[in-house]
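TICKET #2291
ISSUE: user wants both folds in one file
ATTACHMENT 1:
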Amino acid sequence: MILDGKRILITGGTGSLGKVLVRRILSNVLGTPAKVIVFSRDEAKQHEMRVEYQNGKSVTDEVIYRNFQNVLEFRIGDVLNYDDVCSALRDVDIVANAAALKQVPTCEYFPLQAVRTNCLGPANIVRAIRENQYPIETVVGISTDKACKPINVMGMTKAIQERIFLSANVLIPGTRFLCVRYGNVLASRGSVIPLFHEQMKSGGPITITVGDMTRFLLSIEEAVDTVFAALRHGRAGDIFVPIIPSATVMNIAKALIGKRGIAIRTIGIRPGEKMHEIMISEEESYRTVRRGNYYVIQCMLPEVRTEEVSDSEAGREFSSGDHVVSLEQTEALLRKHRLMVEDLAQQRGELLR
C-alpha cells in the first residue's frame, strides 16, 4: 500500500478537489498515512473542514492546540511564501499541489495573480526541495485541459506549472515529479452545475454560453482516482489524462431541467473560454501511451522520458468535441454521479419546491 506510513502534504487542501482527496486518503484505500497536512491560506475554510472532521461538534481550544498531534493537520501558509513552503515540506514524503487560481475570467482580469499562484507557487516547491535537499518521494501537480493549446491566462499558467514540475526531474532525480490533467470537475466550486442549480432554485432561466460548447464529464471522485493512478503507476515526467466522455452544455442544462418548465437563455462565450476542451494535443499524441483507463503523455525531455512510443495510442488530438454523448446518456451520467437537482438537495437536506 503506497501511502502506508507516509506524510502527505496537500496545498490548496480546502478546495473542492483537496477536500475529497483528503477524505479518500483518510479512508486508507491506499494504505494508512502517518500524517495528512492541509496547507492553505484561508483560516475560515480550514476551520470549517476541521469541524467537519470533528463530526460537526464545536471546535474547542483543546482540539486546535492538538493540531500537530492529529493525523489530519491544518497549516496556514501561502505557496507564494518561500519560508512557508520550506516549513510545510520538511519531513513530507508526498506532495499534491492543488493550490491554484482557476477561474478563467478572473485570471483574464488579474493575470499577474494567476502567474504568481499557478507558476511561482510550484517554483517555490521545486526550489525548496532542491535547495534544502528534502528527501521527498513524489510531487503531483494538478493541471487542467486548459494547459493544452492554451488560449487563456489560466491555461497558460497551468502549462508553465506542468513544465516547472516535469523539468524538475532533471535537476532533482531523487524526487518523482509528475502531473494529472483533466477538464472541469462536475459540481466543483465555480463549475457550471452549481450555477445551474442556483438558477433553477430561483425559477430560471438557466444561462448557457453556447449550446454546442462541449465539456468532459468528470466527477470529483474520478479526479481523485486520476491522482491515485498517477501515484500508483506514474513515472517521472508523466502526465495522466483520464479517458472520459463529454456532453454539450445544452444537453447538460436539459438533463438537469428534466420536465421542469425552466427556460434556457444563451449569453455567449465568456472571456478566455474554449468551445471544446482539449486534453491531448496532436503534437503530444505522438508521445502518448494508454495505461488502463488513462492516457499517459510522456515527458518531451529525453533526459526524463523512460520509454519510447513507436505508435501513438491516443492516435490524434483528444478533444471533448470528438466524444459527445447523447442527452439520454448525459442524464444517465449525471444520475450516476448523483448530480441531479434532487440528489444535491437531498445531500444538503433541502426541500424541493
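ATTACHMENT 2:
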Amino acid sequence: MSARDVVLVDAGGTNIGSVRYALERLGVDARISGDAGRIRRASHVILPGVGAAGPGMARLHKAGLVDLIRGLEQPVLGVCLGMQLLFDHSEEGDTACLGVIPGQVRRIESDPQHRVPHMGWNALRRVREDRLLDAIPGPAFVYFVHSYAVPEGESTVASVDYGSPLSAIVRHRNFCGMQFHPERSASVGALLLKNFLCP
C-alpha cells in the first residue's frame, strides 16, 4: 500500500494531522497539499474537515480548489465536514457545496434521547454492498462528532441510527464520504481507510 500516492487536501481542516498519522500507521506517507497540480496527480485524494460548512467552502474557494475537486476522477474521500461538502447544499449557513454527490445536508433533530451534537461511538448499519465494507465486522462501532448530517439516500453505503437513519458512509461514482472520524475509530477506522486505498 505504500506505493499509493495519497494527497490530503490542505484547506484548513483541523483533523488533517490526525488523518495523516492514521495513514502512517497503515504504511502510507500521505502528502498535505493545496497545490492543484499536485492534487490532480495523486492516485487518491482525501478531503478532511472539521467545523462549519460555510467557512469550509470559503477556504476551498480561496484556495482555488472548488472546480479542481469537482473534476477529479481518481478515488476521493471526504471525512466528517469533508463528506458534507461533497453534497449539493448544507442547511448550515445555507451553503452551496461542491455538488459532486446529489443530496442535502440537514441539521440533526434533537430529542431527549438524541442530543446535538451527536458525539460518541455508534454502530454502522450496512445498507448496500461496497468494497469499503470488505472484512468490516458486525457490529462495527465508529466515532462521530457532528450536528449536521445527510439523511439516508441513494448514495448511502452504511448508516447510523440517531433518531432517524443518517448516512455514515456514502459513495457516488469515484466520490466517497465518511461522516464519522475513521482516524479516531480504532481498528474499524483503520480497515475502512485501508479499503478506500485498495485497488
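RESOLUTION: both attachments delivered.
EXTRA DETAIL ON ATTACHMENT 2: The chain has a mean pLDDT of 95.
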